[in-house]
Amino acid sequence: MKTLLLISAREWKLLNRNILQLCIIVLFAAAALYAIHYGNAVIDRQQETVQYIRQQNAQDQQRLINGLGADTTTPAGLAAWEKAAYPSKVRFFLNYYAVNEPAPFARLSIGQRDVNAYYLQLNAQNLYLQLFRSEIANPRKLLAGNFDLSFVIIYLLPLLIIAFTYNLLSDEQERGTLPLLRMQPVPVQQIILCKLLFWLGITIALLFIISCIAFVWSGMPVTAAGSMIWWLLVSGSYAGCWFALLLLINAFHRSSAVNALWSLGAWLLFLVVVPALLNLAFSDERQADPTKLTDYIRRQQGLGESKQEKVEVLERFYKRYPQYRNNDTAAAIRFLEFQAYSAYVTLTDAAAKPGVDAYYRKVWRRQRQMAAFNLINPAVNTQHLMNTLGHTGIEDAFAFRASISAFHERLCHFCFEPLFAGRMMTKADFNNLPVFRQLQPSTAIGTLLRGLGWLWLLTIIAAVAGWRRLRNSFSTPTVNG
User: Fold this and answer.
1) Per-residue pLDDT at 404 exceeds 70
2) What's the per-residue H, E or C state across 358-404?
3) What is d(CA 433, CA 124) in angstroms, rounded to the nearest whole number?
């Protein structure tokens, strides 16, 4: 401990005299502060958009409901009344917005919220024609595409660590002080380790300060305290992994220039080359191409014109939903045309569901295949952990899609009850409008622990390998003399 304190005091004095290192720290801090601002600005814009569309949607819904009391003696009043009174028209004109609300940590790790739709306009018509207006899962987009705080930590923090530690040993060699260090009673490898621990402490302190600023700036609620601890643990573990890699690189006793090249090569490998190769390897359009699926849905055979064809469609519908079969023949015939069309739309969605589910299974399987490789990549692994905390990963996009499907079913059944009962809509019906409920996957502790476990494993392997190599390199005693 005394050796660590002495070397830390020496390194601190050298840091205060090194203008370049101080400038690098200031630039990193400035980049982090801008990233915090950027992440907040993106989510603020999304929330403003959501607030606006909700206000407009509420006004449109109220305008539609007010049509029940419109003056039907005028053409405009009659049209407004028909929109609100006929269940078949309510299916088309009553619109909702399904919204994927941002979690608090989405401000720090935007993830795929800029790639996937975070809101979708819905009515009780064909689900999949509405759902595929925007592809929910776009595997061609990288998870880290924004200059948010997670981007700064994933991409810029390793460069900061490289700048400070690439020459821990080579600098002593090139300045000619290594022989003097070898004559000291403290082993050289212990001195190098103490220097590394000093910079690790500086980095962890910097991460802690920046993260605390981000928590306050982003208005994190007290209930997010657990996620804050996870964030600090993930970012600190990622930094520790890079320090272990730099210890291993320094242990090879190469020149500062070679160490710098190896360090930058590792950065390019983990953050550019490997993610790009995996993205190319698992982005085969034949595996999951929504275009053909969408074309299939659009080309579904239309509803027949004859009464017999419509009755046949209704019979198929009643087999799936026997609760809507109306024994009152007169009431059933009243809306036969509208009932048949609604039944046809519902059956079309049911016919398309297996293909849609198969498509999403392919997307999910591809994501799982990539995730298996990404666990051994500390950069992508950490990005996934931060997206997990921010609820901004592909898992959350799938949960949003499931929320949309569940809500669309409730919306359809809201219109089915009066339609197949053969009656008009009433104000009592509109008092029980379905409400969209977002299915939010919980922060999977298992996912976080598994990702952290791989980070720690890589850190331990690199640190042990580096330490053993350093110790073996300096195991030959020197003769004073």
Assistant:
1) yes
2) HHHHHHHHHHHHHHHHHCCCHHHHHHHHHHHHHCCCHHHHHHHHHHH
3) 13
The rounded distance, in Å, linking the Cα atoms of 419 and 85 is 10
For 404-419, b where at least 16 C-beta lie within 10 A, e where not — what string?
A: bbebbeebbebbbebb
Q: Render pLDDT for 328-345 as a digit per residue (tens, 0 to 9).
A: 767 667 788 889 989 998
CB 21 within 8 A of CB 164: yes
Query: In the chain, what are the domain boundaries?
Result: 1-481
What is the reported pLDDT for 332? 64
Q: Residues 371, 383: contact at Cβ < 8 Å?
A: no
Pick from 222-231, 282-291, 437-446: least confident = 282-291
Is 35:144 a contact under the CB 8 Å cutoff? no
- What are 339's two structure tokens? 């009932």
Angle at which helix 336-374 crosses helix 394-421, to 10 degrees, equals 170
**Contact yes or no for 443/103 (Cβ under 8 A):** no
- Let me know: does 7 contact 198? Beta carbons within 8 Å: yes
- The answer to whether residues 425 and 418 touch, using CB atoms and an 8 Å cutoff, is yes
Q: What is the pTM assigned to this prediction?
A: 0.89
Residue whose C-alpha is closest to residue 348's, from 312, 400, 313: 313
Name the token pair of 346.
């519902």
Contact 134, 117 (CB under 8 A): yes
The sign one gets for the Cα dihedral 10, 12, 14, 16 is negative
C-alpha 358/C-alpha 3 separation (Å) is 62
Average pLDDT over residues 111-116: 86
Give the Cα separation of 341 and 347 in Å (integer). Answer: 10
Q: Does 270 or 359 have the greater pLDDT score?
A: 270
Residues contacting residue 19 through CB under 8 Å, at least 6 positions apart: none
Helix, strand or coil for residue 143?
coil
**Can you give the pLDDT at residue 176?**
87
**How large is the average pLDDT for residues 183-205?**
92
Distances (CA, A) of 305 to 240, 298, 312, 341: 70, 19, 12, 11
Per-residue pLDDT at 480? 41
Instruction: Give me Rg for the CA atoms of the chain.
Output: 31
At residue 479, the pLDDT reads: 42
Stretch (H or E) spanning 97? strand 96-99
